[in-house]
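hiii, so i know i said id send this last week but things got crazy w the move. better late than never?? heres the sequnce for the chain we talked about at the cafe, plus the structure i predicted for it. fair warning i was half asleep when i ran it
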Amino acid sequence: MSARTLSVIVNADDFGGSEPINRAILEALSDGVISSSTILAVGPVVDSALDSTREFRAASFGVHLCLTEYRPLTCSPNLSPLLNKHGEFDTDAVFRVKWSKALVTAVVDEWIAQIRRVQEGGVAVSHLDSHHHVHTLPPLFFALKRVQQETGIRRVRGTWSVYDRASSPSVPLRFAKKVWWSALRRVYATRTTDEFSDFLMFQRAVADGSYAPRRWPRAIELMVHPDGNPAESGEEAQVLRSGWMKTLPVSAELVSYRSL
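okay and structure toks below
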């Protein structure tokens, strides 16, 4: 076992998505079981989320870039291929659309508007990630980099890298993800954790031996989705409060994105 201490960022996505989500995230922050959260600037209760961040100065708050739900903040007609007939983001369009230069530019403008919305709400944005992981789509890589350059944000969530035995991806996909991680870090130099996974999947991967590195990384981000519904997130909430870090085969500490 390595003597190094593993820095763990537990980030709650979707802050601003609903009042139950907001309450669950605030409870997790108050209980000290998460260290970070990302805010949905287009979420229906984003104002409530923004107001609540002032209570948690030690936590990091980022922007949960969105292209798959809710109404965009910008009105460019070039964004229309991603919208449904109601003018809201279509959940699946981003994964099947034919990308054009005009559409990518419209996405850049929308993402910058989402970041500015959070900043104008009084939040010093620490990092970026995205709803349904759209920032990891290869056609949007340089859109992400343009957004970073415009806003000066140097910390970004990586792509999924820790899987349990039942979910392990193909070798080509693993290789493609490693290439993406490398490009993320090198193009407009960006700080990331060494690994990223869903919180419960990480627990399963450690338990079933799928994740047992000879040398543990310096930092990992684990994603959670508190939603205030015990039927949906009961296991996640329970394990978060179980003292799980003490069971890891490595010394670990909970940190925020600001530590990167």
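btw The chain has a mean pLDDT of 96. thought thatd interest u
miss u guys!!
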